[in-house]
Amino acid sequence: MTEFNEQESLIRAKKKVKQIQIFYLHLVGYLVVVSLILYNFYIMDDGPHKKAVTWVNTSTLVGWTIFIIIHWWRTFKGRFLFKKEWEDRKIEEYLNKNTEEETTMWE
């Protein structure tokens, strides 16, 4: 039974790593396209199609930004900076620090 749990845990871990890899690839593609669109805004001259090009570029930026935020949320479940492991590690660090201070104080 424990062997089955280990295999299941390994499969879940591999799936999570794959999701993170796909997210980072999506993010790199997003950054490349955003930089190209911003460069397009920089070099765009006044012309008969300026409004249409501006609208397409802006809607692409807004839409893709929404999708990248949704993808980030689904991948990291909103815990990108302060994960549960980080919280547990910090709590234990402070508990150990308080224990050390109590044992090393001069009375």
UniProtKB/TrEMBL annotation:
Keywords: Membrane, Transmembrane, Transmembrane helix
Transmembrane segments: 22-42, 54-73
Pfam families reported for this sequence: 2TM
Span of domain 2TM: 12-95
InterPro entries for this protein: 2TM_dom
Protein's name according to its UniProt entry: 2TM domain-containing protein
Organism listed in the record: Winogradskyella vincentii
